Amino acid sequence: MIDVLQFCKDYTFVFHKLYNNWELSEDKAFQKELREKHNLDSWFFQSCKTEVAAKIAQLETRTKKKSEQLDELLALVKVEGKRNRWGVFKKINRLKKAITSDITFGGRDLLKRISFLSNNKKTNEKEIEKLKAEYHKKRIMPITISGEFLKKGNRKFEFDFMNKTIFFKPEKGVRIPIKYTCGKNQQKLLEKLQSQIGEQAITVRLNNDKIWIVFDEQKLYGFAFNETEYNKEARKIPKENKVAKKAVGTKYRIEQKERQLFSKNENRALCIDLNPEHIGMGIIEKQDGEKDKVLLVKHFYLGHLSTKLGLSTTDTKQFYQNDKRKHEIKEIWKQIFIIAIHYNVGYCFIEELFFKDNTTKKSAKEGNRKCKNIWHRELTTRLIEKHCNILGIVLEGVKAMYSSFIGNIQNNYSDSVNAAIEIGRRGFRKYLKGSIYPTISRTDLDTMSRDFGLDVLNNAVKTWISAFNLFKTVGLRYRRELKCPLEYNLKSHKSLVILYDS
Length: 502
Fold this sequence. Notes:
This protein is an alpha+beta fold and 502 residues long. Helices cover 50% and strands 14% of the residues. It has 17 helices and 13 strands. The strands form three sheets. It has a seven-stranded mixed beta sheet, with helices on both faces. The longest helix has 39 residues.
């Protein structure tokens, strides 16, 4: 019988060896030595190699981003001299260290703690042993086996989701049954996936107590890009004829979009504005001209989940707050897409999010904590993508410059909802020629004067950008406050998310 834990240890060793000797990854003798020493066949090795390549690419992207930040800071120092010296130089040193440091498998913080306690081994012997055991456990990686639809989903696994069983086939003649447990909704999804065994690749990750199933949600629900037919048609076109190849790609993207929008209202959209403590959403219907009809708005407030506890990241209360926040975020997106289904929307428009470190302002510290530590942007974007993939809603990113400012001038809801409506307006007009900004009208100027106190008569306001700069110059606020009369906890009294209705 194959020991899965030992298999994971062998896989981990090969992963680390490949990572540290990537320049030898194509060397046949090096590959053969690793495979034979740890009894991995060619497919296990190839899957491991793919994972290493992805990890290296991820590290290179991170290093490139930090190098760009470092260059910006060094340029800032040349221009400003000694101004803001402490904050800037502290950040420069931190970035230099981050660029040159490598990944610590098992956890850098844990290794630092062990090193610190080792200064007094006799006194801290028991704690050191405990932390070392935890460190070595964290270093063991799950086996990741890439899927192949031609091999019934995955050549190393056989799936019987109807009976909650997966068979692991590490080598010829060995078939290990793995019984799993999961939630009701997960099981329904897997049972639906059973009907597509052999039609799509299923990647599996496995360790001693967990198993992960990775598949294409769009393909499962019939909304995926038709890659098979596209490849058949594209192969017939000579490589040098790039125009024809591009036309074929466009043809199949249009076909995919038609499948997604079938039986949906393509003039309706879910529009979303994302912030660490606020999520504004609206359902809008496209109208002729620049002003769309607003069918529904909702504002979700997450401020109660963002309280700074001042505790260690390993503290039980901090763990609870983090888990509670993630749970509530998942519940928010469930509710939002239930509404999207009810209104039969064809599109979902969200802002394209880009972040720059504000390294010279101390006031930005709390904002950075909220944006980078507690926002869970990756979780949020994954959830939005998941729901859109399953429901066949066309997801589009929209440039968000001045969306909050324009939204607050042209609409009278809360700040986040106003920004969401402006994002929706841009989404419907994304591929039209011309400026992404609406035409600034007399009504808009009157609103600036009446609601916000801007003296438009003595100031030449001709564009949205000049209006925004004027607001900043005279120190006026343009963000509207929450005025919704109805507020209640999301789903139950235990929820810490406050939902405001219009």
